[in-house]
Specification:
Order of helices and strands: HHHEEEEEEEEEEE
Distance between the termini: 49 Å
Number of helices: 3
Helix content: 10-25%
CATH topology of the largest domain: Jelly Rolls
CATH architecture of the largest domain: Sandwich
Mean pLDDT: 90
Number of domains: 2
Shape: elongated
Strand content: 25-35%
Oligomer: single chain
Structural class: alpha+beta
Largest sheet: 6 strands, antiparallel
Bound molecules: calcium ion
Number of strands: 11
Length: 212
């Protein structure tokens, strides 16, 4: 019986550039993101596209109010109360983070700049305290479009310092050109939760930046 000639993955990649990346992404967006982020960091190519991934306050007159790309939302349906700010004393690997205090139902939002439909991006954050989790919701021309299904961000178990890590890869839908990463909390009065190292970056390995 004649042997069927196998076609190498290298040949497929030449014929259909990006196919291997898409296959790996489809199989598990979380595993793809974990491997790709490690590779980007190892090769010095990790570069958050959002400003202030370190979640640093730039206090003006002692204020630690949120500033772009961060904002916040309290659920009006539940009459939610609580506060959102930068914390200039607590951080995962520095003295800076985002802190929610006594927010009964709400979230921080990290808003992306314009992103390229069809492209894959990595989205991640660190969190400590009482949190619900993270989720990506889509935007078109700056406005939320909740008709496109969002993506929830898988979270790790807490590390030795109590920080959990959320990471996922997302592919921008054809009818979206932005997104908001929602960092959700549901706290009792007096509870505090922190978020740090909040980022999104391109997943591809090109060095020329966002050229499309
Ligand atoms: Ca920080």
């Amino acid at each position: 019986m004649p042997q069927r000639k196998s076609i190498s993955l290298e040949t497929w990649e030449k014929k259909l550039p990006g196919m291997l990346e898409s296959m790996s992404f489809c199989k598990s967006p979380h595993d793809f993101a974990t491997e790709r982020l490690a590779l980007l960091k190892r090769t010095g190519r990790y570069a958050p596209l959002n400003a202030n991934a370190e979640c640093r306050a730039e206090p003006k007159d002692g204020s630690v109010c949120l500033a772009k790309p961060y904002s916040s939302w309290l659920d009006p349906k539940t009459g939610a109360t609580g506060s959102f700010a930068f914390d200039p004393a607590v951080g995962e690997d520095d003295g800076s983070s985002l802190v929610a205090r006594g927010v009964s139902s709400g979230c921080f939002i990290m808003s992306s700049d314009a992103v390229v439909p069809g492209k894959i991006y990595l989205v991640g954050f660190s969190a400590k305290g009482d949190i619900v989790g993270g989720g990506v919701e889509w935007k078109r021309d700056g406005k939320w479009d909740f008709s496109i299904p969002g993506v929830s961000v898988p979270m790790s178990a807490p590390d030795a310092n109590g920080w959990r890590h959320g990471l996922v890869a997302i592919q921008i839908p054809e009818n979206a050109n932005g997104f908001g990463l929602q960092l959700r909390v549901m706290q009792a009065p007096g509870e505090r939760s922190w978020f740090d190292n909040v980022f999104y970056c391109r997943a591809d390995l090109a060095t020329g930046g966002d050229s499309e």
